[in-house]
Amino acid sequence: MIGRNNAKYFDEQGWLYFTKEVFDLYYPSYGDTYPTYSGAIGMTFEQGGGGFGGLSITTREGDPLTLKDRLTHHYTTGLSTIEITSQNAAKVVDEFEKYAKENTNNPSPYKTYVIKGDNNADKINQLTKWLDSHLIKYGHPSAGKTSRGFDYQSQTTTSVNVSAEDIVINVYQPKSRFITTLFEPQSKLPDSATYDITAWNLMYNYNLKGYALNERINPAKAYQPKTVDNASVAAKPYAYIFKYESLRDVEFLAALLNKKVKVRSSEKAFTLAGQAFEPGTLIVTRRNNESMADFDSAIKALATEKGRKIYTTTTGFVDKGKDFGSGSVPFLKAPNVAVLFGDQTASLNAGEIWSFFEQELHYPITQIGTDYFKSVELSKYDVLIVPEGRYRMFDESTLSDISTWVSGGGRLIVIAGALNSFADKKGFGLKTYASDEDKKDAEKKEKELKEKEVLAQYEDAQRNQLPDAISGAIYKVTLDKSHPLAFGLKEGYYTLKTNELHYAYMQDAWNVGVIKGAAKPVQGFAGYRINKKMSNTLVFGVEQKGRGNVVYMIDNPLFRTFWESGKMMFSNAVFMVGQ
What we know:
By secondary structure, the protein is of the alpha+beta class. It is 29% helix and 18% strand. The longest helix has 21 residues.
């Protein structure tokens, strides 16, 4: 009804338009899908031209399309939408009420989603705050019980023990369909020729242990966030110890470094006074911080501000593991970070990186423009981040300069599409194929495929590309948890893959995150041919060059800044690798 009313006004002016073509109604973060999943009417009204800027562009027909034209067209659709909605106000309200009632009384096959209470408290607190912002109800069950459901970590249906400390979200509430969209293990895709990502499950996003149950379990008690009590901390300990398990811990590390506190990190797990600590644990010793005024008060105050649990020790002699003076407990130098910006970079990824440092870590970076990068003295920086992009600037000479800087102690972080400028290049160990034999075999298969498709129908062109496409799918990554790039990711890692890049396992380097064996998404769409190419491939790798390192990130861990576990991986690349 709204579309036809819009068409009426466009017809009167002879304006061209189309419907039912490019945009979908699937990914829940659009301006049309989010309202739809919440019971409203969601639509997209869009006109080309905005991306080119300026007051006017020339269309393919050779006619001008001005900014005023575009404003007028949007103004018309806006008033037309209000008009037809006001004429059907009672129906709109009735349908909204009906939607809420159906959600409450007739939810999806999965009736309850369970988040285990022993997940990292920071992750749970962050997720529950997010649920609060969307008016989603949750809580603790009245008592423990045994049920059966889908295990997100193993991707199997199994027996489930629900404890009174777990968090349950049942779908008998007005936000039922939205909850299902966020948590259902396998989202149903009616058409694989879709516009955007096809997977976003919050259990994989936060990497949480949890289950989807067919049984209804009602919340009986309100969730009580775990609080930190540092009241009985020793006055002047040998060292302060902080666990490193979440993004809040990274934020705390950044705050320490900003205040010039000298911090160490254990590369190995250790036990002290009966307390177990995982790799990555932060250690602030009194030694090396003697010049800091009010050292003890400052550390305690910052830990309290950031909500961090303080552990202390009177000795650097551990019960099990490496002592605090060991080479396996390295000093973390506060990195001077540079990020490429400007022409040739993907503005979205550059913005994601900037936002992450500024809004979440509160850690300074230097923006380096691609137009003057070659004149920059790289020795001033410890870390150089190359965002996604299509780079023309990385010629042989520039790559050689970067390689020399890395060998001298620099840390290069290259993300997604930017890898095309470094793969198979002199001085860098990233290879598309493991050997010439593999390359020849792949080229042969590609040739045979093209020969088969030589008589393909023109109208089938788009669908014929789908077997080689990924629309944004989630894959389980086999992780080397002992490597600093994986610190804090003890539950493992799920990657959101939004590109078709595939690289062989690296030789003489660390294959920290890989897709091992046959590639198959745990959620989302990926073509069968691209899955074959993704089998036994690199996802995250670290190459040591001289005194420095190159971190290769095939998938963008900061995609739209919502992939929470990816933020931990990226932070490790900045602060932990190569220290």
